[in-house]
Amino acid sequence: MPLIEAKNLWKKYGENVVLEQVNTQVEEGEFITVVGTSGCGKTTFLRMLLGIEQPSQGQLLLDGKTFPDEPGEDRGIVFQRYSVFPHLTVLKNTMLAAEFEQSPWSGKLFGKKREQAESDACKMLISVGLEHALNLYPHELSGGMQQRLAIAQALMKKPRILLLDEPFGALDPGIRADMHHLVQDLWKKKGLTIFMITHDLSEGFYLGTRLWVFDKIRLDIQQSDAYGACITYDIPIGQTDNKIFDEIDYSLDQSRKVLLD
Amino acid sequence: MKRLINQYPDRLTRVMLGALPFILILIVYVIASDARLAENPHDKLLPSINSMAGAIDKLALEPSKRSGEYLFWADTASSLTRLGLGIGISALIGLVFGIVNGVIPYARANLSPFITAFSLIPPLAILPILFIVFGLGELSKVVLIAFGIAPFIIRDMQGKVMELPAEQIIKAQTLGASTWLIIIRVVIPQVLPRLIDALRLSLGAAWLFLIAAEAIASTDGLGYRIFLVRRYLAMDVILPYVLWITFLSFFTDYLLKTLSERLFPWFHATEK
After folding, report:
1. B174 and A159: CB-CB below 8 Å?
2. What is the structure's pLDDT at A36?
3. Residue B55 placed within a domain
4. Which of A50, A101, A137 sits opposite B176 (nearest CB)?
5. Confidence (pLDDT) at B32
6. B87 and B180 share a domain?
7. Same domain (yes/no): B36, B73
8. pLDDT tens, position by position, A2-28
9. Which structural domains are found in chain A, ordered by start?
10. If 0-12 CB within 10 Å is exposed, 13-18 middle and 19+ buried, where does residue A238 land?
11. Does A154 touch chain B (CB under 8 A)?
């Protein structure tokens, strides 16, 4: 059974069709990179995976069952911004998952349990390269370090699925490359299933196992909301070449012109 | 010559410029007071600095003949107690209702319209009701302050809770937090510095309601004293009292600001 399955999935807001006829299957352990023009439903799809949006028609299944209708522990998330808690230090941000789990009333741990949670958090922070910043607050970190923290924090819960919503969009190119290594490394070690949204097509071309392009097949120039987007390209990474890159780049460019003008 | 908007005073100039209006008003007062007193030594409107100091000396350093109390300090103590209770209770009400309204949609749908309507009742208009219901004692004065500022704090806190990025609330859920844990570990620590901001903004209103209540029905307090000695045109008491109230208000504000900077360094670093 596939981990995630979409069967003839539609999403509409009133007259505005965002997604139409999305059919796909995802197996455990895949690393899917999602690209598409803004307004082409890739964030909407991610929000459905999170559980904060529900399909208007069709089905979205997790392990063959309807998707949960609220965020849960099996699906971790890293947003482009605001993913970490500004009032907690790096270490405390990372300990949060353990504190939530083991202390449902005070949300804090003491004694042995606290030491255990701290040492677990430290191990995770070492694996993302933040061991020298344990007692800093997020505002004292650079953008790249904040995203490392957000990833570490999400992984503490050992999610099956990790959702990344343009996680490196605000970072410098050099730091972005470091982060790619980090994510790929963690994905291999932890056996995660990853969905990563990006607006950088080249990022999608070498990261992960599978590339999805969300785009509108039908475009009404007078009324761009009339038709929704679906997955127009679904390519295994490795079988990609420059010709496909240019083709996708061109088609995205076309819909970008219609949608944004 | 640089544009005016790009010219900054150095530290000394800044302090002197800031002090200038205070010094000017003091000089104008002394001159005007001297002029009036030269005309009529019994003039009460603009008493000399000396006679004000004398009046306060008497109130602060000599026990009252009637009650044996040091009136100035007794007045200050009772006013500050009422103010502190009023503000403290309002802060608690504001925090609880603001957070519940901000976090839980059902509570918001239920309470938010009512609190908005409630906050529009002019507190002074219901002062007679408070006196009738709670009597003329301490309770009605504290209730008036709470009535006056708590709705504002609730609405402000509700807004601040809802301004927290949705991403944070979602992230907390993916880390396994219940509604309760989100409230105590994510929401409360982040709105506490904003609660202090709201308290600082409501200090002026709190003093207004306190003095109004003391003026109408009280037997001590800074507001009571001012309105009592008004009968004798005792400007030599009223003016120092007003200055003292202003100072207390300023000092409370400063204290809250410092407290917030000590307790919530992350908040003040990201504010700018």
Report:
1. yes
2. 85
3. no
4. A101
5. 95
6. yes
7. no
8. 899 999 889 988 888 888 888 999 999
9. 1-74+160-261 (3.40.50.300), 81-158 (no CATH)
10. exposed
11. yes
Same domain, B80 and B154: yes
> Cβ–Cβ of B266/A138 closer than 8 Å?
yes
Task: Indicate the burial class of A191 (C-beta count within 10 angstroms; 0-12, 13-18, 19 or more).
Answer: exposed
> Hey, are the CB atoms on B174 and A137 less than 8 Å from each other?
no
A77, A87, A150 ranked by CB distance to B170: nearest: A77
Tens digits of per-residue pLDDT, B87-97?
999 999 999 99
Q: How many CB pairs under 8 A join A and B?
A: 85
A206 touches chain B (CB under 8 A): no
Pick from B168, B171, B178: CB nearest A104: B178
User: Is A154's CB within 8 Å of B174's CB?
Assistant: yes
In the structure, what pLDDT confidence band is assigned to residue A237 with cuts at 50, 70 and 90? confident
Say if residue B14 is in the same domain as residue B142.
no
Chosen for mutation from B168, B169, B173, B174 (greatest number of chain A CBs closer than 10 Å) is B174
| Among the ranges given (A232-241, B23-32, B97-106, B182-191), the one the predictor scored with the smallest mean pLDDT | A232-241
Contact B154, B93 (CB under 8 A): yes
Q: If residue A242 lies in a helix (H) or strand (E), which one and from where to where?
A: helix A242-260
* β-strands A161-165, A57-62 pairing: unpaired
What distance in Å separates the CA atoms of residue B223 and residue B208, rounded to the nearest whole number?
9
CA distance A22 to A20: 6
Whether B62 is covered by a domain: the verdict is: no
Question: Same structural domain for residues B169 and B120?
Answer: yes
Domain span at residue B13 reads: 4-46
| Cβ neighbours of residue B80 closer than 8 Å, sequence gap 6 or more | B248
Residues of A in contact with B167 (CB under 8 A): 79, 81-83
